[in-house]
Design goal:
about 160 residues; alpha+beta; OB fold (Dihydrolipoamide Acetyltransferase, E2P); 5 strands; elongated
């Protein structure tokens, strides 16, 4: 199974609760830390297996990091992790998801190689708004309710 790590939360010692975006759902798993386990960070794409536990969360095992060509470029990675953090906050209360979100992240990873990462994130945000039916296509000012004729300015609220 493959997925993107959206969030990690320390539990005890080096153990983690990990939230992974798979093509169909947001999975919450327990990650036992051992000496031979690879480190996992928010934003990484991984291949993994789950070991079911009837009394607790499923255990994350056999983790294989699927690297990106740009992963060692600090600026791009910081922008990517910030986007992943915001996406986690947006999706954290949802369990079953459409494959749209996974495919969107997959597409963004590929576009980060050649395009400006900020442009990629803005495009991804617009696709999310359109997919969720929250994209306003009428150009009216939110402050004064007048029709916008010429230029617009983008702001983050």
């Amino acid at each position: 199974m493959q997925g993107f790590i959206l969030h990690t939360q320390k539990v005890k010692d080096e153990d983690l609760i990990v939230y992974i975006l798979s093509p169909k759902m947001l999975i919450k798993v327990y990650r036992f830390y051992g000496l031979r386990h690879s480190s996992i960070l928010s934003g990484y794409k991984i291949d993994f297996a789950l070991e079911e536990n009837p009394s607790f969360l499923p255990r994350l095992k056999d983790v294989l990091h699927l690297g990106f060509l740009w992963i060692m470029q600090r600026d791009k990675m910081l922008i990517w992790q910030e986007f992943i953090r915001l996406l986690y906050r947006h999706l954290k209360d949802v369990e079953e998801l459409d494959s749209f979100y996974f495919n969107l992240l997959d597409e963004c990873v590929k576009r980060f190689e050649k395009q400006n990462p900020k442009r990629v994130i803005v495009d991804a945000y617009l696709k999310i708004l359109e997919f969720e039916g929250r994209l306003h296509k009428d150009f009216f000012c939110f402050a004064c309710d007048e029709k916008i004729q010429n230029s617009i300015t983008l702001l983050r609220a």
